[in-house]
Amino acid sequence: MPKSHRIAVIPGDGIGPEVVDEALRVLERVASMHGFGIQPTRYPYGAEHYLKTREILPDAAFSEIRGHDAILLGAIGDPRLEIGLLEFGIIAKLRFDLDLFVNLRPVRLYAEHLCPLKDVKPEQVDFVVVRENTEDAYAGMRGFFKKGTPDEIATQEILFTRKGVERAVRYAFELARKRGKRKKLTLIDKANAIRAMDLWTRTFAEVGAEYPDIARDHQYIDAACMYVVREPAQYDTVVTSNMFGDIFTDLAAMIQGGLGIAASGNLHPGRVSLFEPIHGSAPKYTGRGVANPIATVMAVAMMLDYLGEGRAARHIEDAVADLLRSRRLPSLGTDSGFSTRKIGDLVIEALDQVSAPA
Ligand code: IPM
Ligand code: MN
Asked: 132 in ligand 1 pocket by Cβ < 6 Å?
């Protein structure tokens, strides 16, 4: 019996369902080419479902979802609902309750013309960001006092735990070693102003002593935003906190061609993990069939790599790279002139054209 992977699919809101459909077609195709099976189970959670039923992500569904091998998510967020309701009820709930402590965000430029920076070559943009994914201001320790009055106070705690910081940092050192490229890990923080980040400084030094083969670098987040534009080639592996990672990876995504290609994996090594494009639900493009599904296709590639299907993952990556380099797909925006469906077709054709990796 060939191996079969059980995937929980949450297409979600806005353009989510459109891009997920194409990514699933690519997944089915690559699975049949590489001789493994896919058993997708679709879940309806998101804004439409909430408006109809008032359910966000029920406990029973959550338990069922966690029993899968991996989760594929489209996008969550709808302007008709209270800000953050579904983002926290679905995305953050999955991240926290499944303890997906690493948010892995690769930044790779596949074709020079996709980079908005002048004279930056593909070989100069190839790094990966390890964003801590379960702590920081995202932990939800917040409150309002005297809400709505002139004396209102609003607080939200930035919190870090030694265990939480250490596991993210350790994961990043291991990854820098596994990548085996520049063997360098850059810590991005703001320890000069947010003194609680001294915990990151100390943990990085202590864990780093166990990895003498990995060079350690450090930048403050404000400077890192400047350096990533000025000299992206300096990065190999980056580790940072939840909030800075959120911001830094949107900036980094632009350097690789924008949110049309940037994907992420929310991981707990050895457990069910979640894969998604970095972009959101893009309500203004919903239902127009113009959304680019490549970021979700790249999320599928990350998912396959995680599931031990490394060859199939590289096959997708090679196909997308070829499609972009040849300009058969000329841009990653909604102005490419191709429909969502057509881009799915192009990826599937490209899978046939590039040879499967060894
Ligand atoms: C992301 C998103 C989320 C985050 C939002 C939707 C809560 O921006 O995955 O980067 O801030 O983590
Ligand atoms: Mn974000």
From this structure: no
Atom of ligand 1 nearest to the CA of 84: 7
Choosing from 97, 99, 198, 222, the catalytic residue is 222
* Residue 355 to residue 351: CA distance in whole angstroms: 8
pLDDT in tens, 77-128: 999 999 999 999 999 999 999 999 999 999 999 999 999 999 999 999 999 9
Contacts of 184 (CB under 8 A, 6+ apart): 176, 214, 215, 216, 217, 235, 236, 237
* pTM for the structure as a whole: 0.97
Alpha helices in 35-161 (DSSP H): 47-53, 59-66, 85-86, 93-97
Which of 190, 220, 318, 322 is labelled catalytic? 190
Give the number of C-alpha atoms closer than 13 A to the C-alpha of residue 141, restricted to the C-beta side: 9
335 is a catalytic site residue: no
**What is the C-alpha radius of gyration for the chain, rounded to an integer number of angstroms?**
20
CA distance 103 to 130: 6
The question of whether 118 is a catalytic residue gets the answer no
SS3 99: coil
